[in-house]
């Protein structure tokens, strides 16, 4: 385990170092699929320059990073490449540690359920064996570190990599069971990009499950813990925001970072759904449509939390995927984060129905993005509709992927309790239909 | 979503696709070909129309009348050209200055990677002369370009002379809202390339040039003029540019409209328009015209000076005077009027040409096929690849190959990597090894490059499967299926991207590659299929295209002449890549050929 992991790390660092030094780095860091106005390195450098001149980095409309991030780079700007590589490893190593935790818990649960006859007898082949689980951390590491999306994002020095590291750290602390650290890191992630706010629900559910507190609105222990966790979260959010205020001495960053995220004023094309709509619509519908579009990210939290309240770790995966699909300035780095989780659900593979179609769609789209960009911007022969069509297809593929995993997860749970080979009442073989 | 989520319906659909896979594929292939050939049938095409309002309704009155003076200028220019033994720079500068233009020169030099035997040049050194007519009526933020190449020998003298005559006439008019740049470039495309790079402050091809001293606004459109005789019988419009890019269709419409107005015979691909679309001859004629356009577009080179402008977002076309044996003659004054009219209409533009189509095929000048009509032909071919991918055995392999512990991934990786390394060798070695080849073999540099390319191409056929067998022993049944799945997907994505950028290239490659790649398995008679595969490989596709092209331009060649042409086409392709950044050679060498090798590998799997 350690040897292949080390080998993997060496390969990954070599690829990145080579790309950093090659002429491709400049090309990659200009790609709209890889960097967004929020996390482009070029803008961070601009913000740093303004800060050094004693001007607020948010004056002008270029810089949209959070104050803590700019102070981080203020001290490490000369080692930026190293910071980005390290942040990639951070995500990776954490996910390696995180899986065993999950695993141990899972086995305990499986054993318990088996003993109490809760699982039906013929579902043994659905249970996860320690042997197949053993390689999961390695696979997760491989999926994240060697994913071309992550590599592109890292080489472009998109600060998305750092956000990913914070989210990974949050998941790690949550699974470790440290409510305080989890609250603080969740606050930090929220502070970075607002959207991880929706991860509050799964984290809370996880802690409740861990402490054997039933999710019951009439129980005081439930409310006590919820308030406790919410307090840790909100408290650290307030502290972090206050710290930012004292660092900069002004509240400039609130409209410039969060207003920028919510009202989507920058319509540079990206792989998300916002830019085309907002470029096309009449100005006086803007508020309405930005509400409609933003609500997508937050709304699914409620039904998903209800449906998956027994499975908070899967819920975290679902939430991260939804954030990366529906956020206002998505990049491929966000996509890479939830894709790193896919090997963890390799036991769902037999229930996935469209994985082949989806892989083909995602693959084809990744190839078509640069082609259509070239036709639109350089050749001038295609137009934005061509590019947006591919964006739509790419997001359709992602949604299909997530829905497929969701369905597979539910179906596996169903089979675990009802047996693998379902019979109709008249004794013939039945099929499950999701409607 | 019902189809995707309901298992019963899914099963029915996949069952249908599996059972009827081969017939569906055959039908798709035939339908694709028939669709494509049907595109030239007139009722299926659209009539061209002027989309751009600024150029449509406002007819202009042409008054240019100094055609005779232009012809005498041509003689003078010819004399000076002979005296200078190349471009008479000083004479041109003086001539332009005396006509009231701001005149500037740009010198450039370029060493070709290997000698160009068609044009007999290796170290190219030249000068571009250009004069700017400043617009009296507008803030000089936009410009138009008229260019005439100064060719060696006594060709193209009339074009340069007409350019000067037009400059003199335009200078006296007051309605110009855009600067007009009159450019006389030396060494045809190399000069144009140097001038464009200088104008836009870029250097993408390693050309050495002196910076431009004078500059006008952003260039909106460009016309390139090629005339070699005092009277002409027809004018030919050339649209195909670098990498198969085409100018906006409105530019062709504009040319056609003025030809109609002035009664000039106009052709495209050198073919006159016929009105008898309902006869077999009429259809064949249209189909030939369209096929010529497809072949020219597919080869990705610039077919006139205009082709390089397109890269900079400048709509451009070449107008070529043809003097054949027809009785109908047009004099220089009429051509001057035609150009005057076109430039005046372009002068009226309020924004860049963007209203009309950028993706089209022209069966004749008055009819066009838009992207929506021709893409299905390609789609029908590409869908075969996807249908073969969804072949159940292959689908199952996909699930197996997802497990990294299974041998699938490794057995696939070896042939993929080896094929691509062969491709890289094919891309890099010919130009870099020429000196060594010339030392050891009695060939010239150009021959060395072409023959090395062919040698590597042929050697590649022997390499992959042998190495693969050496590394991993006998191939398994599972292995070739995974490899085929990868290769089919790869080819589908590759052809799809190619067809988007350059439809003709994508389509021609699909026609030759799809049937064999879709049907290949290791269990076929090896010798027979090896021959078929080689006959349908990318290199042979080029060879067929050469013969078909010669046939279509009514200059059929014998086999040996065809072979020589094939060799020169390869050297031109490599040169085009090095000089202007044409992408066809790297595409074929780095992607299509390795992909084809992967299928070759499947045939020899066991």
From TrEMBL, chain A:
Biological pathway: Glycolipid biosynthesis; glycosylphosphatidylinositol-anchor biosynthesis
Species of origin: Cyprinus carpio carpio
One Pfam family this sequence matches: PIG-U
Subcellular location: Endoplasmic reticulum membrane
Parts of the chain that traverse the membrane: 166-188, 194-213, 225-251, 257-278, 285-302, 314-342, 354-379, 385-407
Domain of life: Eukaryota
Keywords of this entry: Endoplasmic reticulum, GPI-anchor biosynthesis, Membrane, Signal, Transmembrane, Transmembrane helix
Name the UniProt record assigns to this protein: Phosphatidylinositol glycan anchor biosynthesis, class U
GO cellular component, one term: GPI-anchor transamidase complex
UniProt similarity note: Belongs to the PIGU family.
Automatic annotation (TrEMBL), chain B:
Gene Ontology CC terms, in alphabetical order: GPI-anchor transamidase complex
UniProt-annotated location(s): Endoplasmic reticulum membrane
Topology of the protein relative to the lipid bilayer: Multi-pass membrane protein
Transmembrane segments: 20-41, 371-389, 409-429, 449-467, 487-516, 528-550, 587-605
Pathway per the UniProt entry: Glycolipid biosynthesis; glycosylphosphatidylinositol-anchor biosynthesis
SUPFAM superfamilies (alphabetical): Zn-dependent exopeptidases
Gene Ontology biological process terms in this record: attachment of GPI anchor to protein; GPI anchor biosynthetic process
Record's keyword terms, sorted: Disulfide bond, Endoplasmic reticulum, Glycoprotein, GPI-anchor biosynthesis, Membrane, Transmembrane, Transmembrane helix
Keyword Protease in record: no
InterPro entries registered for this protein in UniProt: Gaa1
Quaternary state and interactors: Heteropentamer. Part of the GPI-anchor transamidase complex, consisting of PIGK, PIGT, PIGS, PIGU and GAA1. Interacts with PIGK.
Cited function: Component of the glycosylphosphatidylinositol-anchor (GPI-anchor) transamidase (GPI-T) complex that catalyzes the formation of the linkage between a proprotein and a GPI-anchor and participates in GPI anchored protein biosynthesis. Binds GPI-anchor.
Listed name of the protein: GPI-anchor transamidase component GPAA1
Source organism of the structure: Cyprinus carpio carpio
